[in-house]
Sequence to fold (784 residues):
Amino acid sequence: MQKIDSFKKLEEEIRINSEKLVAKYDGKDGFRTIAMCTDTGCEATHALDVYAEFEKQIKEKHLENNTRLAHVGCFGLCSQGPFVKIYPEETLYRLVKVEDVEKIVDQDIIGKKVVEELLYEDINTHEKIRKLEDIPFYKKQVKIALHGCGVINQESLDESLGCDGFKGLKKALSMTPQEVIDEVLASGLRGRGGGGFPTGRKWQFAKNSVSDEKYVICNGDEGDPGAFMDRSVLEGNAFEVIEGMMIAGYAIGAQNGYFYVRAEYPKAVERLKNAIKLMNERGLLGDNILGTDFSFRAHIRLGAGAFVCGEETALINSIQGQRGMPRPRPPFPAVKGLWDKPSIVNNVETLANIPYILREGASSFNKLGTEKSKGTKVFALGGKVRNVGLVEVPMGVTLRELVYDIGGGVPNGKKFKAIQTGGPSGGCLTEKDLDVPIDYDNLIARGSMMGSGGAIVMDEDNCMVDVAKFYMEFICDESCGKCTPCRIGTKRVLEILNKIVSGNGEMEDIEALRDLADTMRDGALCALGQTAANPVLSTMANFMDEYVEHIKDKTCRAHVCKSLMQYVIDPELCKKCSKCARNCPVECISGVPGKEPYVIDQSKCIKCGTCYSVCPFGAISKR
Amino acid sequence: MAALQQKAKEQIVEICRKYKDEPTPLMVILSEVQTEYGYIPLEVQEVISEETHIPVAEIYGVVTFYSFFSLKPKGKYVIGVCLGTACYVKGSQAIIDKFCDLLKIQPGETTEDGLFTISALRCIGACSLAPACSINGKVYPTLTVDKVQGIIDEYKKEASV
Fold:
């Protein structure tokens, strides 16, 4: 394996591999290429079986001389996976099952005729769409952090080199460290992990700290339940994140970088290990990179299931083999971080933006976005929305564009109720907020926050008190217990919420919740505790009527809170078939088959919902 | 200490020595021991302590802090039901309730036959497939309450062959 040990050799490799990557897809060599996403989302919907079936069919039908198969990273629209993309025509098939493979091979690969029924269908017009870029989901997207995902083989350094890889590093190494920091400052990039602190300023602090050793830490402890941006970036193009880390290392004067990745993401860890191994072999990591004085090594540390480790000082403690508890700041990690040395902690997506900024220049980056939030943001759009998946959009698009134009709106004719951003530290935004351009400051002004990029849509079937309780259960579980306001505050808030959803709430509870929220915000040690009450405060601000209904009327309009709802059989609709009674686990439904309509004994009903789901006539409703 | 077989002890020592040049390797060692043995009982912590010269009290503190580390053995099949936000709003609470109901255990517990452990996970990153669960790393997408029995049967069958 030839080392890439000078600028000249890197340029040569980039040139050769760019040509190869273009040739892989343009069909000029007479080959058709079948590209498939084989990352976590598609794998769970059996993409690997589909891939194996293609392999088998290609062999059986002797197509090896004009057809090749390729693994690529995430296409983004995960709810429509597995995806099969046929080059050079760029025909995109979705929801492909093993039994569809033969048809694609016979009709398209051999017969050169598109298989219409496997094309994406527009959710409103029902028109078939053949190419990815024509699907509305993709129209407003701009790929910077997700650069290379869905294009390159995730395990090939050569293909990464063919897809602009390491051009940013080369540029950085031809500048002084201060010039690199100035470029990042000029780009306006802010931390993508949630806080939104200007990345360049963080780097400047670390550069100004004098020490024999410094560290770059990549925070891949994506703990926000409902977010998977960092996982997809690491799975789809880990090389680019390492490149970003190296540029950061060069800028602040660090020679070692640590990736801290959730143990729940085995594939991302595998990809990262592979990328580091390949880069070590080719000399892109190690001593005197590209013949310069810059040396850098990358290491991986796994998380062990503690949400609080996303907080930078807790993360550092975890790498140091301690309980992942935060410590007071200052001193900030830029002054005293990992093993007491100056360190920067940057999120995966933040680092994935860096190569672009260096390669294309700060001015290309900062022309996207709003006045104070530049560039793009990756969102994991999920919940009650038709197109679920990974979305990268310029800052400044509105929530309405995100939910309706990209997400396709709420399915099953239900009404949009709220969109939750920022995870357990964020809040719910409602109809009135939908036309606000998304950026760090606008979301905070509206009572939520950007967070790491989870965006969960909720509809009329979601109870907002229950949602607040859900987040509080999460935070209460994950509170590390070090400081009293968070340890006890989250527990007390959860108790009050449980009291309300079980029908025992009193109006004074609302005041008590506000009081506890204030105490936690002012008194907790780290951001986890300071923001812990946000989901409660924002649901109270937007949905106070639901809280009041739970407390005063003892009803839950979404019929989610079990203590406040009943299953009722409509005697008009009941066909007296006895199916509900036969399936009831506590035998609380009585009636006479064919003669008397059935009735549920509410005092015995455990609200399991079995009767509701088995009734063939829709005679049972929630009330 | 007597409970720990010589061979197992040697393997743990080997894991510790593999990382002896790493600065602060405790988390790395514990992750590997957890993966290899499925749990980290006190006897194992004592061996790690001897090798790394980290007090057992400190190791115990770390083991009990992180949800990935376990003091008790887990079942052959660990059913991780995702209770992340995307799954929760799509009804994953009913899914985990069904698993608990059918296996007659609570989240965090293991069935008497040692086959199944149910754990409530906070987001496995499969939000586009919500509600989802993961069994020994295999992800089951878009679950419904009706599918739960079938999944359990699949593993019971696998275990009986």
